[in-house]
């Protein structure tokens, strides 16, 4: 016997009993024998119970179950904590309020309990990520959480991680430095995509997927901020990038990615994007015209007699008249630079040729 059928049967019996009692009480008004009115109203009550019971029991239970299932675990836990805290605070106010003259002494304790409990539940549910980040950091001895408790700082929400940024691996080094103060959040569907890539038949994709899983494991162990895997999902689409953007909008948090297309789509939909490639370009060393640096010439340039070298961060340096210094490290004088989508590109001349 299913639960739905059992609830319908119980509801039908209860409504039938109520109908019988109502019919017996109305027998004098209807000028009918109590047995007849009781039977008629009992049958009507049974029919009404069969129809109405699911709306009073099964449907609300299913809706509550769906809400609880889709609700993040951290939000559910913080709501329960807020409920308990609200009840505790309400109990503290109940006795003083009960001493007030009637009707205030009878009404205000109950009203205060409802209002205080609701407010604490709402506060804890809205700030659920911060509460978990705070107490998670305290348990791990995170200095940022200790500063937050002492009033010297705060933990600023969450950051959604894209598959590309996990596979890239630089997020691990960045998180170790302590520059990121937000909790790093990985949705379950991103983890599933990583697993799918790791199980690919193509060797390159398989290696990338395995690297991503290894980075994620190290990130959970060595990150200075909490790293959480959440079960939140977005219905109506199977595209991981689209799910990320919609989830970021729902939670009002930024997305960290290296994917140029995801970057553009997220920005068009009003979602903040943290692009590690842009961060890397912003952190590259800047040399001004007139500075002298050492460069190893490794390639021929497009123009005649040009040589090409690279700085340690990968920035290209085009050396005029540098072809004859192929495979040599020479001091060069920066003459100018241009800014491209990939970053800066410098132009220089061998320092010795200028002196001559």
Stretches where pLDDT falls below 50 for ≥5 residues?
142-156
CATH topology of the largest domain: Rossmann fold
Number of helices: 16
Order of helices and strands: HHHHHHHHEHHEHHEHEHEHEEEEEH
CATH-scheme architecture of the largest domain: 3-Layer(aba) Sandwich
Strand order of the largest sheet: 3-2-1-4-5
How large is the share of residues in beta strands? 15-25%
Q: Radius of gyration, rounded?
A: 34 Å
Largest sheet: 5 strands, parallel
- What structural class do the secondary elements suggest? alpha/beta
Q: Indicate the mean pLDDT.
A: 81
Question: How many runs of DSSP E, i.e. beta strands?
Answer: 10
Q: Looking at the structure, what is the overall shape?
A: elongated
Distance between the termini: 99 Å
The percent range for helix content is: 55-70%
Count of separate structural domains: 4
CATH H level, superfamily name of the largest domain: 5'-nuclease
The CATH C-level class name of the largest domain: Alpha Beta
Task: Provide an overview of this structure.
The chain has helices at residues 3-25, 27-30, 34-56, 58-70, 73-98, 104-126, 128-139, 143-150, 163-168, 170-177, 188-198, 203-222, 240-251, 260-268, 276-282, 351-355; strands at 158-161, 183-187, 227-230, 255-257, 273-275, 292-300, 307-310, 316-319, 329-340, 343-350. It is an alpha/beta fold. The strands form two sheets. It has a five-stranded parallel β-sheet with strand order 3-2-1-4-5. Strands 6-7-8-10-9 form a five-stranded mixed β-barrel. A hairpin with a 6-residue loop joins strand 6 (292-300) and strand 7 (307-310). Helix 7 crosses helix 8. The longest helix has 26 residues, at 73-98. It is elongated.
